[in-house]
Amino acid sequence: MTDGRRAALAEDAVARIVRPEIRALSAYAVAKAEGCVKLDAMENPYPLPEPVKARLSEALRRVAINRYPDAGGEGAKRALRSALGIPEESGLLLGNGSDELIQIIVSVVAKPGAVVLAPEPSFVMYRMDALYASTRFVGVHLRPDFSLDRDAFLEAIERESPAVIFLAYPNNPTGNLFADGDVEAILGASRGLVVIDEAYYAFADASFLARVPEFPNLLVLRTLSKVGMAGIRLGYAVAAPVWIAELNKVRQPYNVNALTQAAVEVLLLDTDWISEQAAAIRVERTRLESALARLPDVRVFPTQTNFVLVRVNDADRIFEGLKARRILIKNLHGWHPLLANCLRITVGKPGENDLLLSALAELEAEPAR
User: Fold this and answer.
1) 255/260 Cα distance (integer angstroms)
2) Contact assessment for residue 41 and residue 307, using Cβ atoms and an 8 Å cutoff
3) Which of 42, 106, 201, 283 has the fewest CB atoms within 10 Å, counting from its CB?
4) Alpha-carbon distances, residue 198 vs 114, 170, 227, 339 (angstroms)
5) Would the CATH topology of 13-42+273-364 be identical to that of 64-267?
6) How many CB atoms lie under 10 A from the CB of residue 172?
7) What is the phi/psi pair of residue 154, to 5°?
8) Strand, coil or helix: what is 311?
9) Annotation: CATH topology of 13-42+273-364
10) pLDDT for position 368
11) Quick one: pLDDT at residue 107?
12) How high is the pLDDT of residue 31?
């Protein structure tokens, strides 16, 4: 059989078997970042402090790579509870990043007729995981200032009776915190699970984590990826034990590897370094916001994350111009009508931000083509 014939047969099988909505998708693209100023992925730009790095190296040296990891991740859970103040009466589940936990949550509630509800624009995986689970997704548009449209959201809850609601708090990609009163109203109105996704908790001035015991339908979702540990891929869900017990039935065995579990236990022995780096990012965020606001034709939106959302006259031109200068940011133009000509810029180290600002000034001065 020729190579062409084999390829044709494979394509025919894919066309017959793979769901059409999956075939219509594109795989998630990650830009090649070697040699670039990387301001596109909301990572903490600072490396581990040397004492923390030394502890980590010693801990990883002792890991029995030939054995499966602790299936429940009990040591990592103890470290999380101790370091981050997770209530003892609350259930706790670990995931391979918060992405896996979002997928688990949607899978658990994806019975016929179930609805996943979320504001839009927001984290794209809420919609995508609903699609993967063949579950209907309903988006409620934010207001032009990116605040929640409380009345529209409550109407959607009444109309759709969603199985799960996702609220990114602060919201990605807009960067803002929704009003506590709006979130509380949603928790009170929903008969389903309400997931408060606090991926950016370290940079915000609010959290619902301590209030998990107060609301029986509240699940707080977090990740360590934004606080200097993106490479170990650890997310965690905190909710009433009855919710965690059901989610745990869908979790794959050994979903958090032994190296990650060992790393978490030593990385969280003290959290001063996390707080110090988050504080440095906040300071640099304020400087970056002020400098961006001084550029002509740039609108800066309020943020409580480690990124800044801006609107420019021509997002595609600015994005490509920065890319040509080996500076990577995220172009959101075309994602949603509210994000027209918007760019998302991760807060980098001072020198990286200076390079960005210099390049933006050059691009703003260039005549439009």
Assistant:
1) 10
2) no
3) 283
4) 24, 7, 12, 22
5) no
6) 21
7) -65, -35
8) strand
9) Aspartate Aminotransferase, domain 1 (3.90.1150)
10) 60
11) 97
12) 73
Distance CA 359, CA 365 (A): 10
Residues of the chain with pLDDT under 50: none
| Cβ neighbours, 10 Å, residue 214 | 10
Angstrom distance (rounded) from CA 265 to CA 277: 19
Q: What is the pLDDT of residue 367?
A: 64
Report the alpha-carbon distance of residue 116 to residue 137 in Å, rounded: 5
What is the model's pLDDT at position 13? 78
In 296-324, which positions are buried (b, 16+ CB within 10 angstroms) versus exposed (e)?
Answer: eebebbebbbbbbbbbbeebeebbebbee
Residue 300 to residue 309: CA distance in whole angstroms:
6
Give the closest residue to 346 by CA, choosing from 288, 266, 261: 288
Structural domain spans, the chain: 13-42+273-364, 64-267
* CATH value of 64-267 in 3.30.1380.20, 3.40.640.10, 3.40.50.360, 3.40.50.150: 3.40.640.10
Q: Which residues contact 224 (CB under 8 A, 6 or more apart)?
A: 230, 232, 234, 235, 264
Bin 222: left if φ > 0, else alpha if -120 < ψ < 50, else beta: beta
User: Helix or strand or coil: residue 344?
Assistant: strand
- β-pairing verdict for 307-311 and 342-346: antiparallel
Q: What is the pLDDT of residue 365?
A: 72
